[in-house]
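INFO  loader      accepted 1 record
INFO  loader      residues=380
INFO  predictor   begin
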Amino acid sequence: MPPPFGIYVHVPFCAARCGYCDFNTYTASELDGSGASPDGWLAAVRSELEIAAAAVGERAVDTVFVGGGTPSLIGAERLGEVLGAVRDAFGLAPGAEVTTESNPESTSPEFFAGLVAAGFTRVSLGMQSAAPHVLRVLDRRHTPGRAVEAAREARAAGLAHVNLDLIYATPGETDDDLRASLDAVLDAGVDHVSAYALIVEDGTALARRVARGELPAPDDDVAAARYELIDDRLSAAGLGWYEVSNWASAPEAQCRHNLGYWLDGDWWGLGPGAHSHLAGSRWWNVKHPARYAAAVAEGSAEAGREELTDPERHTERVMLRLRLRSGLPLDLLDAPGRAAADRAAADGLLELDGGVAVLTRRGRLLADGVVHALLAAAPV
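INFO  predictor   done
INFO  writer      dumping tokens
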């Protein structure tokens, strides 16, 4: 049976750049004079879909994920056109999951109704925090209550699954701020929550503020305590972790597209800077929207490619599967790796059951170290 096949679509447009963001995104002023536009982007995506269909052949799409950037900026009608183009090029498998990311400030009841009419089944909304001062540090533009309101609008419109994203351990955030954010998330009635510790990425406005001493760097111990707070609160409300940073109310609420990344799936990434993976080959597109459109017109937007070796694929398989609650099959480890897994279990970092290694909560806090130990067969 072939692995699941997904389509990722990268929308590179944003109304403003958030201070912590290092994604491949562009504001209108940054694109001024380049000739890049949402309509030009859409035409190039259609053309890349034709290239993809010719390369892949007949293969129905199991999941579609539109990310960014801010996909909601281009509107429900264009998002529907994107999905229609995927249908025309490949067809959707029965019960396909179709997700778009959205920022709360660029959504409305009409927007969500348009998504449902187009065939979207899932929306992921960037909430980050319910505390105004935390949103200001992150340079987020929506008001604290808008994310919850948008989640309710999405549910009322008929979207089957709704996710809210949180960022925690932002400088200036308190435990009470995070508790208020979690209360708001749960009050919204969503069936999926993603929560990520703030990372200060090089080259971002946030990194410059930290370097100047305007803000303290995030504290690892604080982040660990906040993670435990999140896990306790969400678990008590019936949302169980299924990946280190993701919680869902039931298996059907889990993000199948992301599971495809974590479980050796294949996907084609459309759009500027998008990455793809097919049968051990990985490649990525040119980043700038204008260059992307020109490259597609010439027959390929590919900027680089790598063929994964067996050891590289093994490393990724261990790293990604261990992050999942379904766990890492121990038969993927050699004898030294199994001995390292036994040591990690003795240290309370892993549970070993039925030939599978699963991270404990303490292990989730130290996941990268556990992965290194299993691969290097070094003491944890």
